[in-house]
Amino acid sequence: MEVSCTDQEVAVETVKVSSNRLNDLKAFDETKTGVKGLVDKGLTKIPLLFHHQPDNNKKSHSEHTIPVIDLEDVVSKDPIKRQGVVSRIREACETWGFFQVVNHGIHECVLEEMKDGVRRFFEQDDEVKKEFYTCDQNRTFIYNSNFDMYSSPALNWRDTFVCYLAPNPPKPEELPVVCRDILLKYGNHVMKLGIALFELLSEGLGLHPNYLRDIGCTDGLISLCHYYPACPEPELTLGITKHSDNNFITVLLQDHIGGLQVLHQDKWIDIPPLSGALVVNIGDLLQLITNDKFNSVQHRVLANFIGPRISVASFFCSGVKSSSKLYGPIKELLSEDTPAKYREITIEEYVKYYNAKGLDGTTSLEHFRV
């Protein structure tokens, strides 16, 4: 059965909206064709639903660039070279919360096919896509436009599909034919990379290489595939508003168009596409368990006259949708001088709060501070 976002009970924490706005949201939701459906109609003015509050901090700055880290030395048996990589990753996580990796082991042809697979899904016939349109989080494959449609102050100019790849890999028949094979293949590659990254992150914290993996950081993998159509009025909206990620880490594949920015020292810094590279950023849950040693930094995506822009964000999480397992600051990182800054929580509790709050430009971490 098809389930639209309007079929779900809207959370108590959602923003108050006028009846006219609510009707407009429901009408947009029930088209099941997302932002691309609007663009396909040839609109020249974007709907008010997508208008964001004026931002006095729209200017981007180019005097800084996020670190680019070569992982080729990781496979080296030279411990000095490996330690050099660990040191660069630790510094990037402490000062930026973002870095790019090259020589990461995923062939460029796989990266290109993954982007092509996303494009094929969103550009197929609407009636075929509508079969996958849902906000039911229990589905393996979820296609919609804005997951926080009824809780965020303004909609973002993008459509998304989400696929849960681990711990329970989907059956091939549960996935769209146009991107089925590459989704599974790319997911396998990213899982291997993620395991390697968590080893380096563990070492950067002064812990055993398997520490973060052993506590479940690599148990779950979710692929979020975004499609940003060209926007006729990009100055009025955003591709994705300012936010931080609700996971341990994100591995991001972006295409050549650009638009991703990270907030660094109160300035928006562009993260320009680098051929063959992947962007890695720290999520809220890793900041929480590292007691603020590693930083989950706010970032956004600008809307653009050019499109479509395509990106694939691979979220590493606990993988347990409903579990009583508690996560809090790692005991080995605490001392009398550095007490715990957060209370222990379940992943489900964090994600539930994050989703109900929506992408409103504020961090969810503050809610869980001691």
Automatic annotation (TrEMBL):
UniProt-recorded Gene Ontology molecular function terms: dioxygenase activity; metal ion binding
Cofactor: Fe cation
Domain Fe2OG dioxygenase: 217-318
Gene3D superfamilies: B-lactam Antibiotic, Isopenicillin N Synthase, Chain
Keywords: Iron, Metal-binding, Oxidoreductase
InterPro entries: DIOX_N, IPNS-like_FE2OG_OXY, IPNS-like_sf, Oxoglu/Fe-dep_dioxygenase_dom
Family according to the record: Belongs to the iron/ascorbate-dependent oxidoreductase family.
Identification of the protein by name: Fe2OG dioxygenase domain-containing protein
Provenance organism: Arachis hypogaea (Peanut)
Origin organism lineage: Eukaryota, Viridiplantae, Streptophyta, Embryophyta, Tracheophyta
